[in-house]
Amino acid sequence: MPHELYDMIIDFLHDDTPALCIAGLVCKQWLPAARFHLFSNTRLAPFNVHNALAVICSAGSTIPPHILHLEIEDDETQYLDEALLRLPPLSNLMSLSLGKIDWTSLSTGAKKRLSTILQNLTTLCLNYPSFESVDQAFELIASAPSLENLLLWSVNYDDSCNYSPQDRAPPLKRIQFDADPFTSNLMDWFCRCHPTPNVHTFMVSGISVNDIPAVCGHIRHLGSALKNIAISCPGFDKIGTAQTLLSKQIDLTQNTSLRNISFDSIILYADSPGSRSCDWIIHIISQIPHRSLESVTLNIFLGNLEEINSINLPALDILFLNPVLSSNSTKLCFMIRGGVDRDAARAMIKDGLRELDGRGRLEFNVMRF
Q: 337 - beta bridge partners?
């Protein structure tokens, strides 16, 4: 049997651990593919860290070279310390995710080990990390010279400390984070660096009024390098103050290579405390002067069909049939979430956008980036 067929069979079992263990024992030809699915994504959590490390670190273990993506969760710093100090060299590690890391509580040995691990990483994800200062966080990020993908969620730090950014940043291609005071400093750091990270995908959620100047400034600074944007701007009040302000301040005229823009977490529930109007989205799209745009995605949350009326489908139909968006056959994609009947919601949206649908420019549940 050709090796390609072996791989197809084992790929089908990618999330079935018992079956993969058995497949790895069938013959030598099946072993590499089985090991890939078993160990390429490895997760160490407080409930399994001791047993997992015992297996990974045992004499003669063949697991380490197969670990490509490592996730370490930590409710207590002792677990992260233990994992970092005991892990053997991970020669093929590409991405690292750390949960609830408290930098101030890590031992000196664990910090040095982490610095070594970061040298060849291309992806770093930090969930709820705590630092003494902004600079301390920046030093950690800057110590990954090959880093291309950075994901940050809810960074805690002492904002009373002075901020003095590093001279250089990693060669980032993709950044994803919550908008907050820390990420405002992060974007300021990137803008000051020479060269500036050549980011092609920029994803930011939870944009508030205070975050808008930094977010808009960084998008403008990225210029023609930027190809994909995903933004989430919750309507915290009935008049959508943050959304309206964002639509007025965001300037995409410098992003001449922009291909895809996604508006995420659009809450249209009738009982939502915030604004449900989507006019701010229509305003942003209408200001895009380039003919390079390939798709616009609306990630909407619905409880019932009536809530679809908040989208203003007639205005969207007119907008997407204008010369700028028509010349490139820009597609409009809906990601439908929530408790609504999705088939019925899809039918109602298609009925409201008949012209666009008839031209094959209406899509559902297609992820562009």
A: 301
Would you state the torsion angle of the CA atoms of residues 340, 343, 345, 349, taken in this order, to the nearest 10 degrees?
160
> How would you classify residue 365: left for phi > 0, otherwise alpha for psi between -120 and 50, otherwise beta?
left
Tell me which amino acid residue 329 is.
Answer: S
Q: ∠266-295-209 over CA atoms, to 5°?
A: 40
First-residue to last-residue Cα distance in the chain? 36
Cis ω for the linkage preceding 195 (within 30 of 0): yes
In this structure, are residues 295 and 331 in contact, taking their beta carbons and an 8 Å threshold? yes
Q: Which residues of the chain have pLDDT under 50?
A: none
Six-digit token string for 328? 């490139």
Between CA 40 and CA 51 the distance in angstroms is: 18
Query: In angstroms, what CA-CA distances link 269 with 296, 300, 339, 352?
Result: 21, 10, 10, 19
pLDDT at site 101: 87
Q: Where are the beta strands (DSSP E) in the chain?
A: 41-44, 69-73, 95-99, 123-127, 149-153, 174-178, 201-205, 228-231, 260-267, 295-301, 331-337, 362-364
What is the pLDDT, as a whole number, of residue 221?
A: 93
Token representation of residue 366: 């297609």
Q: Are 67 and 92 in contact (CB under 8 A)?
A: yes
Cβ neighbourhood burial of 364 (10 Å; 0-12, 13-18, 19+): middle
Whether the Cβ atoms of residue 350 and residue 357 lie closer than 8 Å to each other: yes
Q: Please report how the helices 241-249 and 279-286 are oriented relative to each other, as an axis angle in degrees rounded to 10.
A: 0
SS3 content of the chain, % helix, strand, coil (to 5): 40, 20, 40
Q: How does DSSP assign 144-181, residue by residue?
A: -TT--EEEEES-B--TTS-----S-----SEEEEE-SH
What DSSP string describes 224-288?
A: GG--EEEE-----STT-HHHHHHHHH---TT-TT--EEEEEEEE--TT-SS----HHHHHHHHT-
CA 231 – CA 214 distance, rounded (Å): 13
CA distances from 234 to 61, 208, 281 (A): 48, 8, 12
Matching residue, tokens 């009536």: 306
